[in-house]
Design brief:
Number of helices: 6
Number of strands: 2
Oligomer: single chain
Radius of gyration: 21 Å
Length: 127
């Protein structure tokens, strides 16, 4: 994935319009649109600015996916950190899907245990 494609993907992932992104970058919407279309050269200062906006390392924008590299989107919400991963090849994507399936199984086990605890506590309260 080329850098302008990554930028567009990250913007869309964050549910921002091109106009919102242009405002964050202090530039015109048409100027920003050219970045996403790959019609303008991106110099280091702009790449650094974009990396700061998405709260990612500049390296993550610059790495080519030809080698199956991964880049991350780091989001802060109410003091919590969330990392979203994007992969350049199917093998890494399959590994991530399997990891997420394991997390879901774990979550389901915890929920089932909590449901048992709630049931037991309800019985105790009713006595």
């Amino acid at each position: 994935m080329k850098i302008h494609e990554k930028i567009k993907h990250l913007r869309e992932f964050n549910h921002w319009t091109q106009e919102e992104m242009a405002e964050r970058m202090c530039m015109s919407p048409s100027g920003y649109a050219k970045i996403e279309r790959g019609e303008t050269k991106l110099y280091l200062d702009k790449i650094q600015q974009i990396a700061q906006i998405f709260e990612i390392n500049i390296f993550d924008l610059l790495v080519s996916e030809n080698g199956g590299d991964t880049f991350y989107n780091h989001v802060h919400t109410n003091g919590n950190s969330i990392y979203n991963r994007y992969y350049g090849n199917n093998e890494n994507l399959i590994d991530e899907i399997n990891h997420l399936k394991e997390i879901i199984v774990c979550k389901d086990t915890i929920i089932a245990e909590k449901d048992k605890q709630i049931e037991l506590l309800t019985k105790l309260l009713n006595q």
